[in-house]
Amino acid sequence: MKRTARSVALRVLLDSENGRRVSLATRFESSDFGSLRDRDRRLATELVYGVLRNRSLLDHQLDALLERPRAGLDPEVLQILRAGLFQLNYLKIPERAAVHESVRLCREFRKASAAPLVNAVLRRFLRDRPPLPDPGGTRSLSVRYSHPEWLVRRYLSRYGPEGTRTILERNNRPPPLHLWVNPFRTTREKLCRRLDREGVPFRLHPRLPHCVRVKSRSFVRHPLYRRGHCFLMSPASQEVAQLGDLSRCRVLGDFCAAPGGKSFILQARKRSGARLISCDLSLSRLRQMRARAGLYRTPQLRAVQADLVHPPFRRLFDFILLDVPCTGTATLRANPDIRWRLAEEDVQRMSRIQRSLLRSSFRMLRPGGQLVYATCATEPEENLGVVEHLLNREPEAELLRRPGGDFPKRESFFAACLVRKRGRTLRPPAAAGSGGRKTPAP
Ligand SMILES: C[S@@+](CC[C@H](N)C(=O)[O-])C[C@H]1O[C@@H](n2cnc3c(N)ncnc32)[C@H](O)[C@@H]1O
Predict the structure, then answer these.
(1) pLDDT in tens, 167-216
(2) 45 CA to middle of ligand 1, Å?
(3) Which of the listed residues 242, 266, 281 should we mutate to test ligand 1's pocket, taking the one with most ligand atoms within 8 A of CB?
(4) What is the 3-state secondary structure (H, E, C) of the chain?
(5) Ligand 1 pocket: which of 266, 280, 329 to mutate (most atoms <8 Å of CB)?
(6) Which atom of ligand 1 lies at the shortest distance from residue 375's CA?
(7) How far does residue 254's CA lie from ligand 1's centre (Å)?
(8) Which domains does the chain carry?
(9) Can you tell me which atom of ligand 1 is nearest the CA of 259?
(10) pTM for the model
């Protein structure tokens, strides 16, 4: 069967509905995207991201146009209708073509019996244009900006209507592409000279020494990217891996390290002779990390599989970066699919895991050592709440750097720098030794 932009996009949307992550760097390099011409690849990308970013709004319109409940539609038909409405609402595609192609997709996906319904709904949309809900209030913002209501409610209570709109609007704009230029393969100057020669527009980050913004959505297929001269990483993530003074650190830990972006930055930053140990629970993510280390030619990666809830090492680290698993609510701009996967209960669930990870990681810090606790979440229970939980329980923990308060004005990750004060002993850990797998100190 011939792959078209619309059929490829539909498959990604169906996979996403079944829990598969949508990722610009991995999925869009896959064979089905790879077989499309540039123009079609752009359309497929626009359709996938557009439908995910506007899902509640499209569903609101569908509910007004359908004569029966949306919940009764086959998944394929629902996605065809969302994608069709997205094209009619937002893309400069002739209306006739958008309707015709949607009907054709019904046949391609063996839903020929739904073709008249799809045709009728899309034509009704062109005639009636259902109105948006009245402005103001949680429900209206949730529909207009397509975010889950529980998250909008939380933002409204903390940032008010204006701050909330700033966040929601920003989350729905395509993110700029930023690279970390890999010093083990090249330099920023060399890479930029090549971009210049090829006419790829770029801009240097004013503060981050390895960060370059490229204005080319298809850069993940560029030979420099494929050969590991750089990788995609937001400035906020790069900034987190730049925190802490490493000049005197001999043993460094990157905890919750896979697939490794921040480990590679730490490797470039650490002083020569210092050891970096990167730990993660997930074997498959560690495997990805090893493959990336090979591609990036980073020196001697020590990647260890360990459940960090049960301290696998003694008090050995001068510096730890703990980049915990989290809800990812600060990354909805790059990952619009996440918002449809999360439930409010996930915030508390993640917070409990993060508290255990922070407490046990702190115990692996030697006196005088520093720990950077980082999340890519916006919710206080995952951020300051976790740090305060530690400060209330560990008398040796001290907060060195209060996390910046730029959100919601500026996109950022959360990062808090903690230090383990010298000279006292810790209380015995509540859960220590209770079945935790102990690995000898390396
Ligand atoms: C936010 S991601 C880390 C991203 C990584 N720091 C980077 O820059 O590429 C969180 C990681 O925590 C790991 N993780 C979750 N629970 C863990 C545990 N109990 N012990 C160790 N790692 C864990 C996950 O496998 C996941 O790779």
Answers:
(1) 999 999 999 999 999 999 999 999 999 999 999 999 999 999 999 999 98
(2) 28
(3) 281
(4) CCCCHHHHHHHHHHHHHCCCCCCCCCHHHCHHHHCCCHHHHHHHHHHHHHHHHCHHHHHHHHHHHCCCCHHHCCHHHHHHHHHHHHHHHHCCCCHHHHHHHHHHHHHHCCCHHHHHHHHHHHHHHHHHCCCCCCCCCHHHHHHHCCCCHHHHHHHHHHHHHHHHHHHHHHHCCCCCEEEEECCCCCCHHHHHHHHHHHCCCEEECCCCCCEEEECCCCHHHCHHHHCCCEEECCHHHHHHHCCCCCCCCCEEEEECCCCCHHHHHHHHHCCCCCEEEEEECCHHHHHHHHHHHHHHCCCCCEEEECCCCCCCCCCCEEEEEEECCCCCHHHCCCCHHHHHCCCCHHHHHHHHHHHHHHHHHHCCEEEEEEEEEEECCCCHHHCHHHHHHHHHHCCCEEEEECCCCCCCCCCCCEEEEEEECCCCCCCCCCCCCCCCCCCCCC
(5) 280
(6) 1
(7) 10
(8) 5-128 (1.10.940.10), 138-171 (no CATH), 177-232 (3.30.70.1170), 236-420 (3.40.50.150)
(9) 9
(10) 0.90
Residues in contact with ligand 1 by the CB-under-6-Å rule are: 256-262, 279-282, 285, 307-309, 323, 325
Q: For 14-62, how does the pLDDT look when each residue is reduced to its tens digit (9 = 90+)?
A: 988 888 877 655 555 566 777 788 889 889 999 999 999 999 999 999 9
